[in-house]
Amino acid sequence: MSGFACATTELAPGSEKPVPHIALLLPLKSAIFKSAAEAVQQGFQAAAELEIQLPERLPVRVYSCFDESKDIVALYRQAVAGGARAVVGPLTRSGVSTLAAEQNIPVPTLALNVAEEKSAGQLYFFGMSAEAEARQVAQLAMQQGLRQAFAITTHAQLSKRLQFAFEEEWNRLGGALLHEIEFNGDYSVFAGITDMPDTAVFLAVEAEKARLVRPYLPNKLPIYGTSQIFVGNDNTLTNFDLNSIRFVDMPWLLQADHPAVMIYPRPAQTLSADNERLYALGIDAFRLIQLLLAGKIDDALPLDGVSGHIKLNGHIFQRVPIPAVFVQGHAQTRNGHAAPALQVIPDYAIGKP
């Protein structure tokens, strides 16, 4: 957190003075979510630091908790009582669901995940839904003229969620699902996948499993995945096993020279790819809460964010990533340039963490 002390103050319960501020609510005391929360905080602070000289910029106060599902309502009320003019958080699905069940949301509030509950008037949602990416991949494959698909999954819960989201969108678009294949270490399950015209393979798996599966798939079949398969370009040799796989991810990880990306500082310490995404989420969360505070959402959107192209659908800020492909062990945007933006698809699923 060094370098941002002037922009953000972290408070113990009951220690705040009632002055106007932006409240950042995060599970920084949680053993499970601390790392993710810190990455969001760092990105939020990085964006706040760039605007510290603005005369009307509100200071940021950080409110920490152990368990958002139990603490978030009290923490939210504490922030508002302390003078918060706007609130960003909570981060976890359970925390967002708990807050969304509250009807008293008196200030602009940007939750960093998506809840199934109907939101109160000033509660908005913005997160990293893996399911939304799976739907966008289905759309991308359809745009490229493919009409049939194999879906490869594992027994993991996230894998099943990705599979369901892809198949739901694929069917909605008129595609035919040829077969669902669950991979649990037996490579013979791929024997039925052969070169077929107009056919795609969707990998509802993370990077490690994708590297195991890719060599057993026909080279001529277009293969797709979500950002789960991309853990960075640092290990080109490892990424060779992912060659030609198409996926979607953030400009923050794929377009370092993009004007919207270049203006923000990179983390002081090396982060995992997942935490880099959360850092980028924090940057865009700061930008969005500023727009909500100023009442300029309608004028400013769509927003060219570091986490993707951002539009508003109801009370959900939807993040559209950019298409990319692995070439010679290196992930890059198609033809080395930004690809056409995908259509925003309603996100019915809950994001992560």
Major β-sheet annotation: 9 strands, mixed
Radius of gyration: 21 Å
How many angstroms does the end-to-end distance come to? 21 Å
Report the CATH C-level class of the largest domain.
Alpha Beta
Unreliable parts:
1-8, 337-352
> What is the structural class?
alpha/beta
Indicate how many domains the architecture comprises.
2
Helix content: 25-40%
What's the pLDDT, averaged over the residues? 88
The ordered H/E elements are: EEHEHEHEEHEHEEHEHEHHHHEEEEE
CATH superfamily of the largest domain: Response regulator
Q: What would the CATH topology of the largest domain be?
A: Rossmann fold
- Side-by-side strand order of the widest sheet: 1-3-2-4-5-6-14-13-12
Query: Beta-sheet strand percentage?
Result: 15-25%
**CATH architecture term of the largest domain:** 3-Layer(aba) Sandwich
Counting DSSP E segments of at least 2 residues, the number of strands comes to 16
Count of helix runs:
11
